[in-house]
Amino acid sequence: xxxxxFKVIPAVHIxxxxxxxxxxxxxxxxxxxxxxxxxxxxxxxxxxxxxxxxQREVLEEGGINVAYEDFKIVGVMHRKAKxxxxxxxxxxxxxxxxxxxxxxxxxxxxxxxxxDES
Length: 118
Fold this sequence. Notes:
About 10% of the residues lie in helices and about 40% in strands. It is mainly β. Strands 1, 2, 3, 4, 5, 6 and 7 form a seven-stranded mixed beta sheet that branches.
């Protein structure tokens, strides 16, 4: 009898930074943390590495392309919610294209905020 393997849910969170600003989105109509702010983020789809997942997410959610080498992994966090998760935090300050809200059905605001803005 095969023992079931331990599973963890991996996700990427991308800090896009320009001119002392960070890109934030407000979640909408998702059923999870609606009305709260987040960075572009998502789960790994299997058969992709962390940076490839980040590339996919910034394209799907923000309509931009970030070169593989322009991402920097800045943190990793293991956490226990209902299930165990591992979150990878990445930053990028160079990309191709203009940021646009590609998922208005899940995000009702996508905006640059100054780091010192309260």
